[in-house]
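Hi support team,

I submitted a single chain yesterday and got back a structure, but I'm not sure I'm reading the token output correctly. Could someone confirm the output below corresponds to the sequence I sent? I've pasted both exactly as they appear in my results page.

Thanks,
R.
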Amino acid sequence: MAVKVVRGYRTISYEAACVLAGSPPWDLEAKVLASLYRWREEERARGSRPVQRQIALRREELRQVLVAEWRQRLLRPTAGLATVEAIRPVLDDWLGRRHGSLSFRVTQVLSGHGCFGKYLRRIDREPDARCHHCVHCGEDTAQHTLAECVAWEEQRRVLTNKVGGDLSLPALVRKMVGSAESWDAVVSFCEDVISQKETAEREREISTPFPGRRRRTGRRRRADNAFFRPP
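Hi R., thanks for writing in. Yes, this is the structure output for that exact sequence:
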């Protein structure tokens, strides 16, 4: 469900998907509900019937405990490290923000699962991880696309004018939660650049001799798309 919320690839790790979606693990949510239920039963046993305001305050207290426990759990992620480490320091701001939503292409950049040579090589859609948009890069990653690839210098200039020169993922996430303007600037960059990378990938699928990159047809294509395509 978290993957569907962030419109990401199904290969995104559980921890990264939950953090991106702002959805705490369900075992922690269950603990909150159980604790709230026990508290209400104890209050009734003492002859008190909590009003709605008291229940809301108690729920908020338990929610703060949940976030603290979740943050501790995120100190030891098993996968999706770059995404988790970027969001964990600003987890409260990420959860409480009132602006910005994630698109398919923004999630690609934040998760590293998308139209990047390293990822496409991992799922056997490219023979190697090199960048097809600049000649000197041996590995095309989300960070390379965001901060280094010379093909996107103009889009990057527009982005840095809004968010500053530090395009590391933690710095970018801080800027995104800090203001709607910065969030929109990141969205604009991702939509422009990733859409062009996707177009180039489709063209390579048509022209390449590499079997893993060729467009699938019939049942095999539907099966592959069901696994790799975002919801």
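A quick pointer for reading it: Confidence is low (pLDDT under 50) at residues 224-231. Let us know if anything else looks off.

Best,
Support desk
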